[in-house]
Amino acid sequence: MTNIRCSVRHTLVIILTFSIFSIVLAAEGKKEEGTEKKIAKKELPSAVLTAFEKAYPEAKILGTSMETEDSTTYFEIESKDGKVKRDLLYKADGTVKEIEERVAQTDLPAAIKEAIAKEYPKGKIRKGEKTTRDNVVEYELIVRNGKDKLEVVLDETGKIVKTENMNAKEKEEEKDEEKK
User: What is the pTM of this model?
Assistant: First the structure.
């Protein structure tokens, strides 16, 4: 009877140890996924640099980085083309995954301005960004509405896709930092 109890205990200890080890390994893998690492321009794959220079011959590269998302490695180029700041996310073969461009309030499409004016009559657009991801265009705006600072995402027709209160988000981030 004692041998059976010892065997059961040893088995449980082994299972528990293996479970903890598996959880730790999974967490380590998650840390690698989605992390961004600054790299030198010369570390970009030639296909990425060629695609960028062909599409934006006058643009100046401000920074480069590499990140992994869904087991795919992407290369980001932060650039400035005249007055336009643009961040591009490329696959290693030079295919564009995502383009983020800063957009001045005066350059926003009428549908976007009208949607904001209708939803937030006293709101002021503080920052605008146009994101093209897999040929889908969205506008991400920071809107000051009274005391509230909002992040509003709209599709290209002006339909509001998502709204997030930045004040609440900033408070949550502060709490998270305090916990660390």
Answer: 0.72
Distance between CA atoms of 39 and 17, rounded to whole angstroms?
A: 38
Q: Of the candidates 75, 125, 84, which has an alpha carbon nearest to the alpha carbon of residue 103?
A: 84
Tokens 């180029």 label which residue? Answer: 77
Strand 124-133, strand 36-38: pairing: unpaired
Q: Mind listing the pLDDT tens digit for each residue in 45-97?
A: 999 999 999 999 999 999 999 999 889 999 999 999 999 999 999 999 999 99
Task: Say how far apart CA 91 and CA 98 lie, in whole Å.
Answer: 10
Of the pLDDT bands very low, low, confident and very high (cuts 50, 70, 90), residue 1 is low
Give whole-number Cα distances, 131 to 71, 90, 97, 99, 118, in Å: 22, 14, 11, 6, 22
Other beta carbons within 10 angstroms of residue 143's beta carbon come to 20
